Amino acid sequence: MHDRHLHIVSFTVPYPPNYGGVIDVYCKLMALHNQGIKIHLHCFEYDRQHANELDKFCESVHYYKRKTGLRSTLSSTPYIVISRRSEQLISNLSKDDYPVLFEGLHTCYYLNDPRLSGKVKIYRESNIEHHYYYNLCRAEKNLFKKLYFLTASIKLKRYEKVLKFADLMLAVSAKDKEYLQDKFTGIPVYHLPSFHFNNEVSIKPGRGNYCLYHGNLSVAENSVAAAFLIREVFDDIGLDLKIAGLNPPEYLKKLARVSKHVEIIENPSAEEMNRLIEQAHINVLVTFQATGLKLKLLNTLFTGRFLLVNSAMLNGTGLNELCEIADTPVELKAVLTRLKEKEFEEPEILHRRKVLARLYSNRLNADRLIEYVF
Questions:
Q1: What digits encode the pLDDT tens for the residues 194-208?
Q2: 10 Å Cβ neighbour count for 41?
Q3: φ, ψ for residue 369 (rounded to 5)?
Q4: pTM exceeding 0.70
Q5: CATH (one of 3.10.20.30, 1.10.10.60, 1.25.40.20, 3.40.50.2000) for 211-358
Q6: CATH architecture of 4-166
Q7: Helices (H) and strands (E) in the chain, counts
Q8: How many other C-beta atoms can be found within 10 angstroms of the C-beta atom of residue 110?
Q9: How do beta strands 60-65 and 100-103 pair?
Q10: Distance CA 263, CA 20 (A)
């Protein structure tokens, strides 16, 4: 069999893999490399250094400076897209006939470029971006940021039509797959879940003595969810809640200080975060942003005990049967009260192992991706 080569255009340098979108790209590189694919990686750099670690999985790694600044901000093309343009990138992509995988709408500036005609072009969806930015606008308290997110949402909705130039789309959830199929009839769309670090389910049976919410707390979506849990759910049920994540805003820390049952763990290491997830009795994950696949949901299912989520967190993931689901404060409190004395037992661990192996195996999903593209 001839070597199979693939260009992957990444929105950032996918190392270190320390948040959702970057984890998907990094683990995809590993999985494809393990299946013999020769990867030519193209990264936009702006807040991360060149990473020699990527050379382990790639035939070549190229870096391009992101074009930030006023000109990109004022363009009618979305900022996240136009700031990721590079003549060197399109020149490198044009040198051969290898297929190109564009990671997110961010990287699609050259999707309709005639210099790529004749190539197989794959769009890897991670969010319906205009929905994502609109919900960021709704969650944001700062007026200027709110206006930025709203403007970005409008631009992204207009720009989305560029996706008609893709030959293939890979959606991160079944719900997003349906959206893309409805918008772009005639283009094959497949559900391909996020890649992740978990190779096996490793859950400690028994009980823990606290509940946990975790996420990047500098993102308004997550800090709003954490504040909701403090104010509306853990206000009067006598259960301890730990909230762990990056850079919690001051208002969230103030809320926690006035509650004797809430503790904020600021900027935990990866090891500490994993320990917190493993030892919690109930991992509580709620969101008001029903887009994409939340990788923290997936990671928690592989390593945590009971998982209580709201409907928006599941968003077409196929993981409903592995979670307790509640949407209102009254419903959430009822489930927490029911689970607080319950042991997490081996049959539940075996069931998780079976479902996750079927839907979220990196090896199987790498094979599917290779089949779709080649």
A1: 999 888 899 999 999
A2: 24
A3: -60, -45
A4: yes
A5: 3.40.50.2000
A6: 3-Layer(aba) Sandwich (3.40)
A7: 15, 13
A8: 23
A9: unpaired
A10: 24
